[in-house]
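Budget justification aside, the reviewers requested a transparent look at the raw inputs and outputs of the sequence design task funded under Objective 1. We therefore reproduce one unedited record. The lines immediately below are the structure tokens for a 453-residue chain.
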């Protein structure tokens, strides 16, 4: 069902990038009557080729046939392709619209949308929100940065509700997209290499999630986050604001008082004991507040929310307890791809910690970690091609810093350093692309190496 967001002539839809979002968009575009051409500069995975062939969609790999691409009436680009890539700039220069999968799929669904973004906590909040809504009996899909492609789900099953995890790259490609409920978990410097090392550009990208909201929509956000609060003071928005906070009691929104999580929306109030939350740490209390606020707005029964919070198992690669060996706890936090995520991980540690850190540095400022490293870290195991920034940052406050180039070696070195009662924490604070396919691959290799000890 079309919202008529754009009156685009349904002729040639070109898709740049044949990953999850590209193939999903191709399938939806074909269903909606477009001619489709999928072009990927790299190799296309076999499972995606099979899906394209099954739907009789034309594709190419390891090249971009520009003559064909420039015939497009509309282009959907993978979020991994930068906005200033020469091909994208030239397409826009010729007046050819270039959008994201999220924008394209939005046009063909009338579902109630919950959009979740933030530098950290997006995945946990998305999965917890989906868990609450599904247990509450809603017909709900989960997509975006997690789960199957949003476009593919709209093409094949089209749920009544979607919970969408949205990266800044996906938000950069929206024009008319509007979630009924928008969630912003926090904003800290991340991906600055993509935003010309301008933090303000990155902040503006995150706030695109509210740009089309009206007075009938809701915005849930962290009232303790100075970056969010400053932006809201300077940029009025139309949607109804529902903040959450660990520091203050709120007239509307979510907060903690006397070890009770309290959520106030419109004329409704819900409480539950913080001791019943299965996910640990202050950051996860905030993720729980955001998810529960969404569930309240969508009228999920309070008892269902409480029970669902108690049964939620957390997210793989996020403070995931792997094994205890010789009274040493091994923890996989591979999803911590920036400094702020690692801050949360170190803050939650209650034992002396051997910290495995490193990877592709995205312009990291490590200074905010120094107090926590001083207090909690007894040794650092660097895991990356370029470990110099980490050694320079922490060389004066940790006696033992080792360099490794493989996960197996990193885990072996941590094993030798750890004593009874310690923890070994993989929380890289960096992207994974120097030694691993992605953060999932890094986390799985960590778990495998721990199990092989």
């Amino acid at each position: 069902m079309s919202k008529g967001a754009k009156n685009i002539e349904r002729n040639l839809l070109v898709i740049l990038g044949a990953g999850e979002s590209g193939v999903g968009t191709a399938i939806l575009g074909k269903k909606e009557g477009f001619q489709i051409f999928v072009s990927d500069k790299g190799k296309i995975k076999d499972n995606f080729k099979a899906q394209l062939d099954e739907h009789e969609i034309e594709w190419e790999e390891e090249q971009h046939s520009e003559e064909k691409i420039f015939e497009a009436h509309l282009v959907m680009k993978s979020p991994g392709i930068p906005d200033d890539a020469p091909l994208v700039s030239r397409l826009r220069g010729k007046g050819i619209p270039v959008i994201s999968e999220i924008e394209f799929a939005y046009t063909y669904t009338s579902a109630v949308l919950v959009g979740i973004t933030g530098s950290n906590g997006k995945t946990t909040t998305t999965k917890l929100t989906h868990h609450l809504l599904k247990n509450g009996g809603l017909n709900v899909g989960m997509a975006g940065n997690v789960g199957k492609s949003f476009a593919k789900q709209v093409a094949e099953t089209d749920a009544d509700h979607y919970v969408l995890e949205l990266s800044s790259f996906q938000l950069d490609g929206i024009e008319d997209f509007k979630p009924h409920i928008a969630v912003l978990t926090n904003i800290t410097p991340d991906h600055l290499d993509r935003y010309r090392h301008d933090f303000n550009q990155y902040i503006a990208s995150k706030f695109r999630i509210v740009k089309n909201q009206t007075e009938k929509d809701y915005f849930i956000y962290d009232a303790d986050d100075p970056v969010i609060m400053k932006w809201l003071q300077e940029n009025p928005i139309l949607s109804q604001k529902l903040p959450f906070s660990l520091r203050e009691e709120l007239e509307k929104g979510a907060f903690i008082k006397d070890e009770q999580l309290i959520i106030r929306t419109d004329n409704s109030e819900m409480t539950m004991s913080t001791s019943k939350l299965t996910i640990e740490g202050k950051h996860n209390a905030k993720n729980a507040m955001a998810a529960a606020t969404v569930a309240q707005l969508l009228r999920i029964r309070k008892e269902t929310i409480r029970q669902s919070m108690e049964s939620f198992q957390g997210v793989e690669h996020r403070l995931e307890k792997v094994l205890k060996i010789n009274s040493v706890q091994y923890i996989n936090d591979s999803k911590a791809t920036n400094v702020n995520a690692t801050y949360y991980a170190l803050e939650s540690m209650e034992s002396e910690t051997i910290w495995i850190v490193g990877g592709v540095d995205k312009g990291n400022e490590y200074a905010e970690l120094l107090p926590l490293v001083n207090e909690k870290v007894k040794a650092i195991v660097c895991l990356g091609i370029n470990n110099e920034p980490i050694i320079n940052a922490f060389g004066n406050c940790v006696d033992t810093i080792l360099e490794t180039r493989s996960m197996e070696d990193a885990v072996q070195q941590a094993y030798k350093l750890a004593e009874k009662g310690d923890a070994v924490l993989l929380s890289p604070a960096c992207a994974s692309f120097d030694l691993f396919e992605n953060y999932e691959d890094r986390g799985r290799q960590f778990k495998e190496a721990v199990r092989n000890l």
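The two ends are 54 Å apart (CA to CA). Residues 68 and 389 are 44 Å apart (CA to CA). Computational costs for records of this kind are itemized in the attached budget.
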